[in-house]
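Risk register update: the risk of archive-format incompatibility is retired. Evidence:
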Amino acid sequence: MNLNIVLFQPEIPQNTGNIARTCVLTNCKLHLIKPLGFSLDEKHLKRAGLDYWKYLDLKVYESYEELREKYKDSNFYFSTTHGDNFYHEVEYKEGDFIVFGRESCGLPDYIRESDPKKCIRVPMINTTTRSLNLSNTVAIVAYEALRQMDFPTMK
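Archived output:
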């Protein structure tokens, strides 16, 4: 497993399906934090993930605290429009966790404030809108992390 992609309370099944495909094709584990804005059986989720679901390394948690307790010694980054660091300015390592927030409102303050130096962002020129699409952001950040690691297990 290359990276751990964490979706905090995702709301849109199509985004999660697209992210699941990215995780399968990059050998990343997908972690979902409840509550989810959809059922894991939802047809839109399955359609977006196509036939990749059987290959996905997926874990679902009741809360963010449950995830952190299980991986308390791991390295976490937090993708947010409020981050001081650009996503390409940090040094990723195999097994790192990258946490992404809800489509409608991002990560809550308590998560971002738990380690502000680990908050990363994708630069955007137009700041009058909220942010990039979640599945696009995950792909951008994941591929930069994998590039830094010289694309392990992908050659």
